Amino acid sequence: MTHPITISPTPCRTRAGFTLPELLVTMLIAAVMVSLAVPGVTTVIKDNRAATQVNEFITAIHLARSEAIKRGQRVTLCKSSSGTACTLSDGWEKGWIVFADADADAVFDPGEELIRVHGELSGSTTLNGSGNVADYISYVATGLSTLTSGASQSGVVVWCDDRGFGDDARAISLSPTGRARAVEASASGASGC
Q1: Cβ atoms 35, 65 nearer than 8 A
Q2: Which phi and psi angles does 132 have, rounded to 5°?
């Protein structure tokens, strides 16, 4: 008996994957989308840096005020690039210190307690005070902000980055009663960075 030889057809191989033109078109579309998204991400990063740095400065002001009330004595916040002495030449962006100002002269002297040190701000930022808040902010035991002469202290500190003074600038307003709050730089009365 002879058996017929049957030849079964081999299944066709299906090809998985993408062709080179398909991959190139996909990569081109992805590159265009990334290039459109990057400027938006940069703006978000700069806006977050602005909010963080302004809040850090306001926190230092609030700390000085609450420590003055708690201790029943003058507490001063001053510009400091070294973290160990008050600085008159640099802007607030170089750093600041909060200290118990026992002799009420807005100068960190030997024997006075250092409460907090904040280093230099990151990025290309400026933080400049005008008038009464150019070099220091000082609180007395009642929670009022006063100059070393005893006169009421108020003013504006303006935060700017490489975008300049405009919609992206921020300001910290110190009221005559010593209250610090963030405001729009354009509405703060300041004229620039």
Answers
A1: no
A2: -70, -15
E-strand spans in the chain? 75-79, 96-100, 114-118, 126-129, 136-139, 155-160, 170-174, 180-184
In this prediction the pTM is: 0.80
The whole domain housing 103 covers 31-187
Residue 174 included in any domain? yes
The backbone torsions φ and ψ at residue 9, rounded to the nearest 5 degrees and listed phi first, read: -65, 140
Which burial class, exposed, middle or buried, applies to 60 when counting CB atoms under 10 A from its CB (0-12, 13-18, 19+)? buried
Task: Single out the residue of 160, 149, 133 nearest to residue 61, CA to CA.
Answer: 133
Tokens encoding 144:
């009022």
Q: What is the pLDDT of residues 27-54, one digit of tens each?
A: 888 777 777 766 678 888 888 999 999 9
Residue 132 lies in a domain: yes
Q: Print burial letters for 76-114: b (CB count within 10 Å at least 16), e (below 16).
A: bbbbbbebeebbeeebbbbbbbbbbbeeeebbbeeebee
Give the span between the Cα atoms of 129 and 177, in whole angstroms.
Answer: 17
Q: Rounded distance, CA 160 to CA 101, Å?
A: 29
Domain count, the chain: 1
Determine, yes or no, domain membership for 102: yes
Given a contact cutoff of 8 angstroms between Cβ atoms, the answer to whether 129 and 112 are in contact is: no
